[in-house]
Amino acid sequence: MVRTAVLVSGGGSNLQAILASQLFGEIQNCNLVSVISSNPGAYALDRARAAGIEVSVVDVSTFPTKRTFNTALMQKLGDLDIELVVLAGFMQVLQRPICKEYENRIMNVHPSLIPAFCGPGQYGLHVHQQVLDYGVKVSGATVHFVTEEVDGGPIILQKAVDVLPDDTAKTLQRRIMEQAEWEILPKAIDLFCRGKLTVEGRRVRIDEGA
Ligand code: GRF
After folding, report:
1. CB of 112 closer than 6 A to ligand 1?
2. Are 93 and 60 in contact (CB under 8 A)?
């Protein structure tokens, strides 16, 4: 069983999707050891507690620098002997040491079709507003491995979602969560934990065999 930590900062709907998928047996070989939040007030912590998962808080506001925060987080992951790190609405950038230590073992879900509408400052409703302002007809979600470059790591899974004429950033955000994020993030975790992912440069090969 792959010892897994889910890192959160907010509402935790992606965490909820992971918990539900585990309950339905759609994620195999995954031991969800801990949910770690950078924000002590995150509702995601309540969701984790309700599911009986151990929670920890590494409160970013109590650290003098991003570097000391990253060091504390890395220490926590090491103490828990974590093998897979899942960023599910985690609002902090991971720095080089942590990305290197967990190379191709950290995954993130981003609410657009990377490489469009991604990178520094592209999070939450900003992403969807930019999609609407640009006028694209299709957006979606991407699960990718995490490197130092924000949203720049090898892509594991993507799913497209139509942009509708009357969409607001909020309606689009919700539809992309429901139709894409909540499906592809649990699926990527399952593939990883069953040893089905191989990274070759920028490409992630998926072994579709049973
Ligand atoms: C999601 O849109 C995810 O793609 C992004 O942050 C949001 C988190 O939502 N990285 P939640 O906390 O999982 O509800």
Report:
1. no
2. no
